[in-house]
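Proteins fold. Shown next:

***
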Amino acid sequence: MNSAPHAPDTVERSRPTPSDPAEAHFRSPLPRGLRDVAHALSWDNFYATYACAGGIRLGSWSATPGRGGLIDYQATIAIGDRIWSLRESSTGAIGAITAMLHALGTPIEIVSLHHQRTADGYAGFVLCDVRGISSWGLGVDETAEAAYVKAMISAVNRLG
């Protein structure tokens, strides 16, 4: 019989390291799937890659209390040289921007959501699927909801 003490099970925890500029910038680990593909990027390259501009641009975004506990969202979204003014009632910004993108012909599915507090507000990380192809997007804003909206637009742009 072995009388050696049994080592407790340990859980590996990721910590920001100087070799991961994005993690060092946010002072918190990136979401697992994003961490795996972005670990070697400089901060500038990470931001340019995942908070990318593209064919879909968010011009304005606003929210006002609606009826029945819903929130009325309004957005101006440009695709190429066309501009749309959209309205959607939803329980939150994520549902509203998802419906708006669907209305514009982009059937987006959210696979994973994460957010982190930053010095200036929030960083939102969203893994989206559009027609069977997945992509991460990053959005940074004063509120978590606005950061998610920007992250979803970035993810769609990365797929386009």
Remarks:
- The chain has five helices and six strands.
- The mean pLDDT is 86.
